[in-house]
């Protein structure tokens, strides 16, 4: 839900931070998380966002990957950044071997 759909005078919802990872079973070697979000406090949030995320950084997510035995992951552009994908690109630049990205906003900006 974007802020455009919120009742007048309503602020975006504040999300709670995720729980600390607690590995319960061993995942198969080569496991891949196919949908994850990371955030960066240095990147401005879209004023029209529908929620305010807990700032779970790529370093936080790498700890989750380690705890669960996840070898690879696909990061997805969170809506709170609108068309600014700098947080996603920064995460990818530092983790080329294990992370890939999906950025739906890019589809609308790329040259025809």
TrEMBL record:
Domain Amidohydrolase-related: 32-103
Protein name, per record: Amidohydrolase-related domain-containing protein
InterPro entries, alphabetized: Amidohydro-rel, Aro_Compnd_Degr_Hydrolases, Metal_Hydrolase
PANTHER family: BARREL METAL-DEPENDENT HYDROLASE, PUTATIVE (AFU_ORTHOLOGUE AFUA_1G16240)-RELATED
Provenance organism: Mesorhizobium abyssinicae
A Pfam cross-reference name: Amidohydro_2
């Amino acid at each position: 839900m974007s802020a455009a759909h919120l009742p007048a005078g309503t602020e975006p919802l504040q999300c709670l931070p995720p729980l600390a990872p607690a590995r319960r079973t061993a995942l198969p070697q080569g496991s891949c998380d196919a949908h994850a979000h990371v955030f960066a406090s240095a990147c401005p949030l879209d004023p029209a966002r529908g929620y305010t995320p807990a700032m779970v950084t790529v370093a936080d997510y790498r700890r989750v990957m380690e705890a669960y035995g996840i070898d690879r992951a696909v990061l997805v552009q969170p809506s709170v950044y609108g068309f600014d994908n700098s947080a996603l690109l920064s995460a990818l630049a530092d983790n080329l071997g294990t992370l890939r990205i999906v950025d739906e906003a890019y589809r609308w900006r790329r040259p025809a």
